[in-house]
Design a protein that fits this description.
- The chain is α/β, with parallel strands linked by helices.
- It has two domains: about 140 residues, NAD(P)-binding Rossmann-like Domain (Rossmann fold), CATH 3.40.50; about 160 residues, L-2-Hydroxyisocaproate Dehydrogenase, Chain A, domain 2 (Alpha-Beta Complex), CATH 3.90.110.
- The protein is built from ten helices and 14 strands.
- The strands form four sheets. A six-stranded parallel sheet has the order 3-2-1-4-5-6, with helices on both faces. A three-stranded antiparallel sheet has the order 7-10-11. The protein has a three-stranded antiparallel sheet with strand order 12-13-14.
- β4, α3 and β5 form a beta-alpha-beta unit.
- The mean pLDDT is about 95.
- It binds adenosine-5-diphosphoribose.
- Adenosine-5-diphosphoribose (APR) binds next to α1 and α3.
Amino acid sequence: MRNKISIVGAGMTGSTTAHWLAEKEIGDIVLVDIVEGMPQGKALDLQEAMPVIGKDIRVVGSNDYADTAGSDIIIITAGLPRKPGMSRDDLLFANADIVRKAAEETIARSPNAIFVVLTNPLDVMAYLTMKVTGVEPHRVVGQAGVLDSARMRAFVAMELGVSVENIHCYVLGGHGDEMVPLTRASNVAGIPLEEILPADRLEAIVERTRKGGGEIVNLLKTGSAYYAPAAAVAQMVEAILKDKHLIVPSAAYLNGQYGLNNIFFGVPAQLGRQGVEKIIEYRLSPSEQAALQKSAQGVAENIAKLKL
Ligand code: APR
């Protein structure tokens, strides 16, 4: 049986996610959007690319949730992206309405699906998805940490002229400017970043990572990043469908880990066919733990605003 992956929101991140997933040939894809004709057009265009890249998958575009029935994975990217001057939190109420509807409509048709959430503010939207669908917390995961860590890896690679494959970075916390790049655990071919980079260069990379999304919003002016966020989602979906037990920074439900409760938050999580299999707990320094607490407070305040 082939896997079925439905993507709600066929905008920039949704359609780019479909593109990355098609390259991986891990399942048939359904793109759903409220705009008439657009998901159908993008799906047909992508389908017509399959003979060129030699991948046998089916891509369908739709305005009807009926087409998502029986999905193994539901990806939620529907919503408004940031414009210059906006924080991710500014999107809270508008995107909550959109995500609520997407979650209700999809769980009704795919009761066994695992949900991968991308809509911002990410940690809050993942929490909302868990509440609205009523699924076990391990079946909802949010994408943020893979992206934030990839940005940091890219910046280190640019600085050192080393392959991105040698660079491992771990960014924890909420997907906002209070995120916590763990410089102690990040390394180049096993050598801690703190030993390789002068303190001021490392601090500059940490700062650029924190503001990485905003840097792209300011350049694009009409929307937010989509290549890297979509690639990150595709990696997580692949880890789940292939039951890889891959550990990646993800927004996962915490129930005591890192001293946090009843919150979705960016932590290293092991992903497999059941969704989030395990939360990995680093031994943090007091300053790292304090930074994490500060970031968590912001997420918790936004969750409270939704009065779920
Ligand atoms: N149901 C389905 N699709 C919807 C709905 C809805 N109720 N409301 C909006 N959409 C669709 C829009 O029509 C649009 O095609 O969601 C899509 C969003 O696409 P873009 O505007 O291109 O935004 P994108 O860059 O993909 O970002 C979407 O992901 O990364 C986050 O911050 C980002 O929250 C934003 C989300």
